[in-house]
Amino acid sequence: MKKTVIALSLLTLVSCNAWLSEDGPMVNRVGDFFTSAETARQVVTAVYTPLMWEYQDGYFPEWYFGDIASDDALKGGQNIADGPDLYDIDNFKVVSNNGIVLQFYRAQYQGAARANLAIEQVADMTVDESLSADLKARFLGEAKFLRAYYYFRLVRLFGEVPLVSKPIYSSADWIQPRASVKDIYELILSDLADAEASLPLKSAYPAADLGRATKGAAQAMLLKTNMYYAQWLVNNGQDGSSYFAEALRWGKKFIADQAGEYSLHADYADNFTLEGENGSESVFEIQYMEDGMSDYGEGNGFSRGTFTVVLTRSRGSAFGETGWGFNHPTQNLYDEYEPGDPRRDITILTPTDAEISNEAEEIYLGSRYLSLKRSLMDPATRTYLHLDHASRGAINNQQIRLADVYLMIAEAAVENNDLPTAKTYLELVRARARAMVTNPVPVLPAFPYGSYTDNQAGLRAAIRHERRVELGMEGHRWFDLCRWGTVKDVMNAYKASESGEVRAQMADFTAGKHELMPIPQKEMDLGSLSQNPGY
Fold first, then answer.
1. Is residue 279 in some structural domain?
2. Mean local confidence (pLDDT), 337-362
3. I need a surface site. Which of 79, 85, 158, 459 has the fewest CB within 10 A?
């Protein structure tokens, strides 16, 4: 009885003095903003934006790691001193204060934070005439897909990182510990499963919404994430078989559910044109558009164009417009292509002697090769397309395309010892490239071919070769090598095959260290984060 009286007395006191705790004028709460479908749309759209970011205090596109850290590309630029942080990534000399590593790390957390806010607030929104139940579910699916995507980018580059799955409103929550790789992958897989259940097919979106996450993109990422985690387990002495099986299950579900949604372009080159953006082969791509402004000196979010075009164009004037000459393909990648493979000359531009006016700046450590796929070159005239702003281009960044999905299905099938399925999807990719060759000389025979034997090991090796040539200079190579657990052997062999001037720049690859980038020192200074081994 006494407790009841006290409780009633307190309730009365609070009620009579509620005005003391009411918000004053000009005070806004987060939930006050989320009042309509248009609000939800804007907030979810903002979650995509950090995917576009490539510049803050310096440039940090993801292909800096995916191409340049690998055996596919050399840094390039004006000379070896141009871009010292990128030079370190190229040569296994990264330290914890590397600016590229810091900016990339922070951009992913900006994206995850935006996703957390959208997930929390949209979930509490009331379904009404402006926000149907299906639209609300779609917005939540997009936000969860993107949160998973940002954490996927973080875990494969840094390993254990802080795992923040809700908005941080208090300074007491700013310092977060590193989560285990297992916990990070569990959140990614959970988010992707939720997204897959609520996202529409690509064909269900109106043209204005193309580029948003789809059911197909979520299924492709469930395939990819399960395979990455399976191989991480294997590389760490654990059993990954159940995740390899799950990867194949999602791959087969993609094929069943997405029939009619996607198809390979007849011409491989169509993937890398403005006209081919969000086309039949595109599963998920980062959207860019022509923009007359640059964010140079302004930072993230000032422009909607991409730096990649100007970063990868030739420093010479032979192709009409000049660029900065980064991301030089290696001779090692050039030689990986089978004779007659048409994909080589769509991936790698080889300037003639007449097209080089300044060897000291246009030939980097012996490589004259240029990255071609996102440089926006007209193949008929061999000239670069004009940019509205000298440093910003409009070409999208294809993160997942159908050929990539086919090769991931083939790879998952191999690891499940389902060799017929693996051969089927490997052959689909090779057949497209083969059909592009008009001369009568046989090229790109079906598996088994060359030195690849008709067994699990030979098929695995053939699929890995195919990933390298099909996806060359698209930012995949480094991450493939690391997840396969072959990176030390491959990079050591690559170094031994390189010229003396390239080897003179390269440090030795240290196993157990260089598979990951360091946790940025500025992030460690903010709290009690531990550092990755060896840094």
1. no
2. 97
3. 79
Under 8 Å between Cβ of 361 and 384: no
- Please say whether the beta carbons of 356 and 318 come within 8 A: yes
Block residue for tokens 């090779």:
430
Q: Are strands 383-384 and 73-76 parallel, antiparallel or unpaired?
A: unpaired
CA distance 363 to 370: 9
Helix (H) or strand (E) holding 329: strand 326-329
For residue 284, the surrounding DSSP H or E stretch is strand 282-286
Structural domain includes residue 133:
yes
Range(s) of the domain holding residue 370: 308-395
Residues 48 and 194 in one domain: yes
Look at residue 306 in the predicted model and tell me its pLDDT. Answer: 94
**Per-residue pLDDT for 5 more than 70?**
no
**Run of H or E including 408:** helix 402-415
Q: Residue 499 has which token pair?
A: 């010229």
DSSP for residue 208: G
Classify residue 139: in a domain, yes or no.
yes
Specify whether the backbone of 327 is left (phi greater than 0), alpha (psi in -120 to 50) or beta. Answer: left
Closest CA to 347 of 457, 230, 471, 246: 471
CATH number at residue 531: 1.25.40.890
Based on the fold, state whether residues 166 and 313 are members of the same structural domain: no
Q: In whole angstroms, what is the distance from residue 271 CA to residue 327 CA?
A: 19
Q: Where among 395, 417, 450 does a domain terminate?
A: 395
Whether residue 179 is contained in a domain is answered as yes
Mean pLDDT of 97-104: 98
Number of structural domains (the chain) is 2
Domain finish residue from 360, 395, 430:
395
Q: What are the structure tokens assigned to 527, written together?
A: 């709290």
pTM (two decimals):
0.93
For residue 371, the SS3 value is strand
Please tell me the distance from the alpha carbon of residue 336 to that of residue 483, in angstroms, as a whole number. Answer: 20
For residues 330 and 184, state if they share a domain: no
